[in-house]
Design brief:
The structure holds two protein chains of two kinds. Chain A has five helices and no strands. Chain A is mainly α. Chain A is flat, with a radius of gyration of 19 Å. About 0% of the residues of chain B have low confidence. Classes of the chains: A mainly alpha, B alpha/beta.
Chain lengths: ~100, ~475
């Protein structure tokens, strides 16, 4: 229990952020029309590639002699970047098809 | 000091871009702008993290750029090359990559602890990242394989699969608990064990979930990747990762719940796979007489109709009939027939699948009606054409309490004067449930591949005009 209390005390800002972002996320997404389900999902999917920043921070803290961590970190960056780049690009392709014609 | 402050501001701007972008993405008129805004925010955050002046950093920039450029090129290439009909697969695959990335970060962090003692709080976050990342990785890869037709549902399930999954989950929890409480000195091998078990679990967890439930699974996996990015953010003390990840997690959950509501089933029920193979067959006695219609007769009916409603389903995607569908639409519209499309929320294999396909074929999006509007417009529709949809128009969802889909909101095609079903044969749909719609007096069948049938209709109508 003591450790939990310490964790809460040290990370109170993160916890606040967490709670408010959940609320914000719900707010932003509710009432999405069916037509945007796929683009929204793939756009959100691209955003989850933000995990790439973890990879970048990891590499920056790694001693270059620790070649194992470097390589694995690069793989994490590659995977995250595929997620980001592919996700946004494919979403853009989809959205450019949605047209309203009269 | 000033640089640190600037970095913090830049992260904030990046986060705002992401939040704003997602907000814009949820409305049709601003969606495209939203995607661009979100990608700029993301780009800014990524660049900032490269130049963030952190303590004890090493100049591994070359490695970082190699990773970013390689990943960027691969992602760009995959997204450029993909056919619109393969969109669900690709989105799943991208999602899996994100999960894998989070999983890798977690295992490396765990490795870094070595002989030190893990704190309970951060340890919990670390192990959560590891498990969620791994599950979303292999789960998404299996979803990709299933959607791509490389793996068939029946080849990856077995009797008692759900019980196996639950026990497996408990085993993972047990290892995680042990690692947290008494794992001192053993973190390395415990980490690998948890990771590998979670990867197997991810695979096994998606395996029994059938094709018609795919939209739910995909958006759930999407949400999980978001959550893993968020927990990884806590691990690295990065607010922007937390913000982005949680937004995606929340959005994914909302979408998942919307999909479940569209089927009138709980998430639990979908995950335990009570649909697909295990469906009770007590509704199978509805065999009866069905009537056929020829393309020529139907063409005449359509030509003189006032309003035609097209009801697309997964079959439309399979036979790639969206363009032909649009041709028929254009032909009829020219003749002053009102043409609409009735889109059920779970038609297809991912949320909004039909909308994307029809948009690709240049169908104006104000012709695509959602469930409620479709049902309003179906009253007063002369001809409803069901193209490759089945369960979403199955009236036993309303009438037969014994049916596995009982209670699911459906498109009331029987409100139209005539219902035409384009179908390959009389075989039941994906869920293996008989559809009494086919035997209704209003219903006529037009057998054949959806694309061929629509093509014939287009030719016949041309001949009439």
């Amino acid at each position: 229990m003591e450790q939990v209390a310490i964790f809460i005390n040290e990370n109170v800002t993160l916890i606040y952020l967490l709670v408010f972002m959940v609320i914000l996320g719900f707010q932003i997404i509710s009432n999405v029309p069916t037509i945007l389900h796929t683009p929204l999902m793939s756009g959100a999917n691209a955003v989850s590639g933000i995990v790439i920043i973890g990879g970048i921070l990891l590499l920056r803290k790694t001693n270059p002699e620790d070649i194992f961590t470097i390589i694995v970190g690069v793989i994490a960056i590659i995977l995250g970047m595929i997620n980001v780049m592919g996700g946004f690009y494919v979403t853009n392709r989809m959205l450019s098809m949605f047209k309203k014609k009269k | 000091m000033y640089v640190e402050a600037l970095v913090k501001i830049l992260y904030l701007v990046g986060a705002l871009g992401i939040v704003w972008g997602l907000k814009y993405l949820s409305s049709p008129d601003t969606a495209r702008k939203g995607n661009i805004v979100a990608s700029i925010g993301m780009g800014l955050a990524i660049i900032t993290s490269i130049f963030d002046p952190i303590e004890n950093s090493y100049p591994n920039y070359l490695w970082i750029f190699v990773g970013i450029i390689l990943g960027g090129i691969i992602g760009w290439y995959m997204a450029k090359k993909v056919q619109m009909t393969e969109m669900p697969q690709l989105v799943s695959l991208f999602n899996g990559f994100g999960g894998a990335s989070a999983m890798i970060l977690a295992i490396i962090e765990l490795y870094g602890i070595k002989d030190a003692v893990m704190e309970l709080g951060s340890g919990l976050i670390l192990i959560s990242t590891l498990i969620i990342g791994a599950v979303s990785f292999t789960g998404s890869v299996l979803a990709y394989l299933k959607l791509d037709g490389k793996v068939e549902d029946k080849n990856v399930t077995f009797r008692g699969h759900n019980t196996f999954n639950n026990i497996f989950f408990i085993v993972i929890m047990a290892f995680s608990g042990y690692c947290l409480i008494a794992g001192e000195g053993n973190y390395e091998w415990l980490g690998w064990v948890i990771m590998i078990l979670s990867m197997i679990y991810g695979f096994s967890f998606v395996a029994p979930i059938g094709g018609a439930d795919m939209p739910v699974v995909i958006s759930l996996l999407n949400s999980l990747t978001g959550v893993s990015a968020a927990t990884a953010g806590i691990l690295f003390g990065s607010q922007i990762m937390l913000i982005g990840g949680i937004l995606v997690g929340a959005a994914g959950i909302i979408l998942t719940v919307m999909m479940c509501n569209a089927m009138n089933r709980s998430l639990w029920n979908v995950l335990l796979g009570n649909f697909g193979g295990t469906a009770a067959s007590n509704a199978s006695g509805v065999a009866g007489v069905y009537k056929e219609i020829s393309a020529n007769e139907l063409a005449i009916q359509l030509y003189y109709a006032q309003r035609v409603m097209i009801v697309p389903g997964y079959g439309l995607a399979v036979s790639q009939a969206q363009k032909t569908c649009q041709e028929l639409d254009a032909m009829l519209s020219k003749n002053n027939v009102e043409v609409f499309y009735a889109i059920h929320p779970v038609a297809g294999r991912m949320p909004g699948h039909m909308n994307v396909l029809l948009a690709e074929a240049n169908v104006s999006y104000d012709k695509l009606l959602d469930l409620d509007d479709s049902n309003d417009k179906l009253k007063g529709t002369n001809v409803a054409i069901v193209v490759g949809a089945n369960d979403v128009v199955n009236p036993s969802a309303k009438t037969d309490p014994g049916s596995p889909i009982y209670g699911m909101p459906i498109l009331d095609v029987l409100d139209a004067d005539t219902v035409i079903v384009l179908k390959r044969s009389m075989k039941p749909g994906y869920a293996g449930i008989e559809n009494p719609l086919f035997f209704e007096s209003k219903t006529k069948m037009l057998f054949g591949d959806a694309k061929d049938s629509l093509n014939k209709l287009v030719q016949e109508i041309k001949a009439l005009g």
